[in-house]
Amino acid sequence: MDLIAPRLLCVGTHHKTGTLWMRAVFRALAERLDVAHHTVFPVSGLKHVPAADRVFLFQWSSAFPQAILDRPDARILHVIRDPRDVLVSGMRYHRKAPEGGEAFLHEARADLDGQTYQQHLNALSDDTARLMFEMGEKHAETLAAMTDWAPAPNTIEARYEDLMADTDGRAFREHLRNLGLPEPEVALGGQLFWENALFGGLAHASDRPERVKTHVTGTRGWRSDLPRAVAEVYAERHGPALVALGYETHPTDWLEDLRDAA
Question: Which of 16, 38, 133, 249 is deepest in the core (most CB within 10 A)?
Fold first, then answer.
């Protein structure tokens, strides 16, 4: 990247795209390097940007302040995931997520006859109904955030699927280099990446913190877990988004890849 030296090291994800994993890795890295870290929001502006030092800035919906995105000394690692897997994983997580995390799940809603999102989801008759509800609710918001993202020259694009396949950390270490980290810090980041990975230090359920256990939904992938009735509606509504994000070359041809789902 022919840009000035990075000083604002930004990490952006979306709901159910590896947020907990990236949060653990980069918070630990910042603390080990004694570099400040902050979660920012669109209204934060440059509030958390120091005058001279480096800083890690996190945004778990990738909604960074425009003033940060426009800076030539900013680098942004942006992580997305196949939206169909986001849908399945999100629905399953939302059925069991405890209070104190996702506030929207536990607020009574007049349009749901006083039930919360989670209560309504769990009261539906089957996963087909639950996925259809999820598709029109939190998933629609997440998908809009992913498709609205506009990559810039200072952005490092990554996919959750590739990170999960990166068992030796080679690609992740390259991402850290592109963020501007020197080799000793790259090595440390690679170590923390593995320690917090479900294929690495958290491979055994007994080693996972409770919050990580809650987020692990046991999905086999959309080809097996997405019912055909849901997939057909998804293709009609969101097929173009799959193409725009690079997960498909055609809005509906992927329906032929469905496996076990009814």
Answer: 16
Domains in the chain, CATH or no CATH each:
8-82+150-207 (3.40.50.300)
What span, in angstroms and rounded, lies between the C-alpha atoms of 197 and 47?
32
- The single-letter code of the amino acid at 21 is W
- Positive or negative, the CA dihedral 1, 8, 160, 86 is negative
Q: Is 11 helix (H, G, I), strand (E, B) or coil?
A: strand
pLDDT tens across 63-76, in order?
A: 999 999 999 999 99
Could you give the CA distance from residue 40 to residue 42 in angstroms, rounded to a whole number? Answer: 7
CA gap 36, 9 in Å, rounded: 10
* Size of the chain in residues: 262
Contact 220, 226 (CB under 8 A): no
Say what the pTM is. Answer: 0.92
